[in-house]
Amino acid sequence: MKTVLDVRNLTTRFAGPSGALVAVNDVSFSLGEREILGLVGESGSGKSVTLRSLIRLLPSMAGQSGEVIWQGRDILNMSPKDLKAVRGGQISMIFQEPTTALNPVLPIGLQIDENLRAHTKLTHRERLIRARELMDLVGIPEAARRLSEYPHQFSGGMKQRAMIAIALASNPRLLLADEPTTALDVTIQDQILKLILDLRDELAMSVIFVTHDLGVVAATCDRMAVMYAGRIVETGTVADVFAQPMHAYTRGLLGSVPRVGTERSPLMSIEGTPPSLSAIPQGCAFHPRCDFATEICRATQPDTKMLAAEHQVACHNSLAVVKTGSPVR
Amino acid sequence: MNDIVISASGLRKSFPLSRGLIERISRQPALAVHALNDVSFALYRGETLGIVGESGCGKSTLARCLVRLHELDHGEIHFEGRDIAALAGSARRAFNRRVQMIFQDPYSSLNPRMTVRAILTEALSVHAMRAAAEIPARIAELLDLVRLPQDAADRYPHAFSGGQRQRIGIARALAVEPEVLVADELVSALDLSVQAQVVNLLLDLQQRLDLTVVFVAHDLRLVRHISHRVAVMYLGKIVEIGPSESLFTASQHPYTRALLAAAPELDPSKRSRKIAAKGELPSPIHPPTGCLFNTRCPYAFERCFTERPQLSDRSANHQAACHLTHFDEKDSVK
Q1: A29, A103, B14, B223: least CB-packed within 10 angstroms?
Q2: What pLDDT does B334 receive?
Q3: Could you tell me the pLDDT band of residue B332, with boundaries at 50, 70 and 90?
Q4: Which SS3 state, helix, strand or coil, does residue A42 take?
């Protein structure tokens, strides 16, 4: 598989009143052509900031270091003019809350047209036709009439489809999706997830999918990266990670989801709560909540090791974790 | 488990929409959101009844009606045989004590200007549960029960995480020694690892304190995990109710089947590209005539558009509101 995006040692800091907060800490991963990568983690784990860091969609007080190699060029060093062609052009993004991400005072058609004007050389007439095609592509019925309607006239699911249509207007090669189905009901979520899968096949895009829902990952992603306290702690194919988690945190997360056959028995929970960015524990950030923690975990940050083909993990005691097996069986 | 604690029959509740001047002058009919459309069920002592459905299906309205936070338009709720709408004075206070509610949002359901001690003391003294001198000991006991540290008592809600706040909400509800707990989306605002902690706590407390629980949620996996029986709601109506096991393995309503198919499997090898349910939820202001699910149902035929199906028996304790009793993939229109 051809690699389209290569992220190396990406770090994002925010200046705070009591020193810098490191929201994304030394994150590295790569993404293949037509691949869907799931970025999983709980709130505050840095998954959304990672996604935004890739296209420098951050407030000015943020400091970034590392490399984001897109088609041979580092996005972090691009001139504003080049960045403009990449951001929203070759790389598009869809957001969690369609209600706040769409402009409430502009008709949907105009919002699609804005993106077509910015990133294509189509004439006015061609843009109109293209907008209708895009609405059809994302499954919004009666495209001609709905183009002149405003976001408040759309239901939650239809708004999310409209946002995807806007994102697709520039013919992106990579779609960044930040929890696109979290605000939706389960039957609508199902429709949107399948739409994204169909679009990936039709348009041969790659997708990075940020979510906290392991079910969504299992149903849509090819590979997954688990984040905790700003770091990626485990990366692998979805099948491998679900079959054999190698990090204690991943194992705990999988065990926290209720499964068939264990009704009314205690779930395998993780004690405590995720740390705040201003108080990340020494050594391995997960050690205060970890059942496998030993002396070394409290002292030193584990390196990321390749334990099996395409399966990387940052844990001192991954062998012990592997020995206990997967909670999903 | 045949002792009925709460029985509800024919519940209806609608919320009128405000009308503008022009609508009023032109005498347009008043519109209303029909949140509950003829809901009936029984709650047995000691069980956990799960109530599931998508947003706008009326599950939270139902929970609020059960503790009399809303007055009903029609229908009756009986608690131990007495109509709760008719309760007044000390009888109503006793009902309020014995049936407690825990709310969804741990950030807005606790008074930010009261310490945990003040919150719990209020609950204890309003219902005169303990003499003033015994209150500190009882607070210590309650904090222990929900596994919060003892020094939590003198802190304010802002000092706690979401999961800890939900524990405070549970402690407040348990302070008055209720028999029935109505939990509205108890864990949906919490992170996955914290969700599991609170679910484990609830299961443990139910066993130790002999509680009857109504668990309202949209997460099917969670509801299956903790409920003995489950009711599925759609547009203000229960479309299927039955024992957890048979409802999830042999569901008798096309909507339940769609919900189950739409929930992503946790097993990456069981992927499907088939869409579980086409279309979207119709507006609860203008619900469809006939069966409420007819706009999205793959099996709908003429009768579904004219006659609204009522709950009917399918197997032991398992009822569904559908004109069809078996579902053949061949019959599905799409």
Answers
A1: A103
A2: 42
A3: low
A4: coil
ipTM: 0.89
Q: Between chains, do A242 and B224 touch, taking CB under 8 Å as contact?
A: no
* Mean pLDDT value across chain A: 94
Residue among B55, B161, B224 whose CB faces A258 most closely: B224
Interface test with B, best of A267, A276, A290, A329 (most B CBs within 10 A): A267
Q: What's the pLDDT tens digit per position in A193-203?
A: 999 999 999 99
CATH number given to A3-226: 3.40.50.300
Q: Which SS3 state, helix, strand or coil, does residue A20 take?
A: strand
**Which residues have CB under 8 Å from A172's CB, separation 6+?**
A89, A90, A91, A92, A205
Q: Are A5 and A70 in contact (CB under 8 A)?
A: yes
Residue of B253, B267, B293, B297 to mutate for A, most A C-beta atoms under 10 A: B267
Contact A256 B192 (CB under 8 A): yes
Q: What pLDDT, on a 0 to 100 scale, did the predictor assign at position B137?
A: 95
CB B40 within 8 A of CB B267: no
What mean pLDDT is predicted for residues B112-127? 94
Of B194, B225, B278, the CB nearest to A273: B194
C-beta atoms of B163 and A268 within 8 A: no
- Which fold does the domain B4-331 belong to in CATH? Rossmann fold (3.40.50)
Domain ranges of chain A: 3-226, 241-324
Contact yes or no for B276 and A216 at CB 8 A = no
Instruction: Read off the pLDDT of residues B202-249 as tens digits, 9 standing for 90 and up.
Output: 999 999 999 999 999 999 999 999 999 999 999 999 999 999 999 999
